[in-house]
Amino acid sequence: MDRVDALKRIAAQAERGELIFPTNIDAALKIQQAFGDSDTHIEKIARLIQAEPLLAARIVAIANSVAYNRSGREIADVRSAVGRLGFRTLHALATAVVTRQFASMIADPQLQAKASQLWEHTAHVASLAHLIAQRITLVDAETAMFAAIVHEVGGFYLISQAPSHPGLLDGDLAGWVEQGERIIGRAVLKRLAVPEQVMEAVEDCWNGFLTLPPVTLGDTLLLANQLAPVVSPLNQQRTDDEGREEALEGPSLIDHVVGDETLAGILEKSAEEIHSLMMALRF
C-alpha cells in the first residue's frame, strides 16, 4: 500500500469514527472529560490532576508563568494552581496532554522528531494566540489558547498511526491538508468534544484566509500560526534546516498597524510573556 492509499484508509477509518487511541491516553481523557461536567468540584479536579504527574507539573508551571502570575507570587502545589488558573484553562491543558500523548509511545527516532517539532509548533502558536487574543483581536484568550492547542491534533493522530503504515510520512507532505487533515482532524476534535466555535476556528486555520485587521477567533489562530517561528513538520514550506520559518519577503505581517502600535511592537513588548507561556507548555 502506497502512502496516498494509506492516508486515505486512515482518513476513511476516522470518518467512520474508528479512531485508534494509545492505551496511555485513557487517564488524560478522563481528566479532560471531567472539565465538561458542570458538577465537578475543584477538589476532585485537583485529585485527578495529582494522579497525572506530567499534567500536574505543567499546570503548576503555567500558573507561575508571566501570563498568569501578575503578582509575582510563585506557587508550588496543584490545589493553588487550580485556583489560580480556573477550569477553562485547566481544560485546555488537560487537552494538551491528550494531544501530546498521541505520539508518546512511538519508538522510531524520526517519528519522535516529527512529534516533538509538531508540539514545539503547537506551544508557540498557543502562546502567541493567547497574547493576540488579549491585545489585538480581543476575543477570549483562554478559548484562543485552547483552539491553538488542538489545531494540529489531526497531525498528532497521523503520526501515532505511522508505525503501522511504513513510509506514511516520508517525502513531501504538502498534500496532507488536502488528502486527510480535515477528515482526520474533525474526527479527533469530535472525539475530544471540542466546542463548535473552536472547531470553526480550526477550520478557518485550515482554509488559510487571514482577515486584516484580524477580529475573529479564526483570525487569531491563523495569525498565531503564521507568526510561529517553528512550523509543523507536516507543512514544511519556507523553513530552514532546523525547522524555523524563514523571514517573509516584502511587506510582513509584523508591520501591520494595531491601534497606535505595530504588531512587531506588541510582540516585542510581550516577548517575556510569550516565552514564559511557551516554555511552560513544552512537554
Which tags fit this structure?
2 domains; 283 residues; two-stranded antiparallel sheet; 1% strand; globular; Signal transduction protein; 60% helix; RNase_Y/CdgJ; mainly alpha
What are the SSEs and their pairings?
Layout: H1 3-15, H2 26-34, H3 42-50, H4 53-63, H5 78-85, H6 87-101, H7 109-137, H8 141-150, H9 153-161, H10 176-191, H11 196-207, H12 217-227, E1 257-258, E2 261-262, H13 263-269, H14 271-281
Helix pairs in contact: 1-10, 2-6, 3-5, 4-5, 4-6, 4-14, 6-8, 7-8, 7-12, 7-14, 8-11, 8-12, 9-10, 11-12
Concise overview:
With 283 residues, the protein is mainly α. It contains 14 helices and 2 strands; from the N terminus they run H-H-H-H-H-H-H-H-H-H-H-H-E-E-H-H. The protein has 2 domains: 3-18 and 108-281, no CATH class; 23-101, no CATH class.
